[in-house]
Amino acid sequence: MTAAYETLRAALAEVVAIPVTPFAQDGTIDRDTHRALLRRLLDGGVRTLTPNGNTGEFYALTPEERQLVTELTVEEAGDRAAVLVGVGHDVPTAVASARHARTLGAGMVMVHQPVHPYVSEGGWLDYHRAVAESVPELGVVPYIRNAGLPGTRLAELADICPNVIGVKYAVPDAARFAAFARDAGLERFVWVAGLAEPYAPSYFSAGATGFTSGLVNVAPSLSLTMIEALRCGDYPAAMKVWEQIRRFEELRAADASANNVTVVKEALASLGLCRREVRPPSRELSESERSEVAAIAAGWPL
Length: 302
Hints:
alpha/beta; 8-stranded parallel barrel
């Protein structure tokens, strides 16, 4: 079991890709395009995939669609990549999704930040414990967006559930991340910078060894170049990539990340790789925004 966990830990210390979920003209999931986009990531060197992440429009998919996305990803990944399946919603739904991932052969699940308006520290622990204990064979990665959660709670969870092996930390505060990681146990977990490339350099300086990415859907080489630079401690080289992607990520982050997914899909659409449609509460871009995104994508190495 320890050896298996070490393999999973290594998979988290990577560019953790969050694939988009492409839709067909009739609004259903476009299976063939989905497979093609996954193969493009794998061929581009990506070794960790997260189906049902936020860039995949997790909360806009039906339970059946989330299962389909997981199935397509596991099938395409084969032995070429580790699969970290996003799970969430109410406890029974999250547990069922985690068990479905286990049945398919996925090695890990990422537990989305609970969206209930009232989340106590003890309730956060109970929620994640229920999921982790339901799939003791799988690695479990909490997705933390709550700035008020102390690192000691994560340590307490891992004391109970040793399969909690990594953390996707997505609070936009590098100093808070550094403190949280040390309070929880810096060496105990794999720390994944959950706010992607814009925050990766600062989070790596504080102890992260992997980062999530939606941009990788468009330009895998940029994300992989950044992580290689960060692994080598070459922060000037990492910041060169940061400068290349800055405007793209600013567009995604504008208005409380209202167009986070839309910008990625628009870039893919401009390259002829998938349709631009997203589901509410996301929306499509204006013509001027589309033109800017297309110009950015056209200037990247693909």
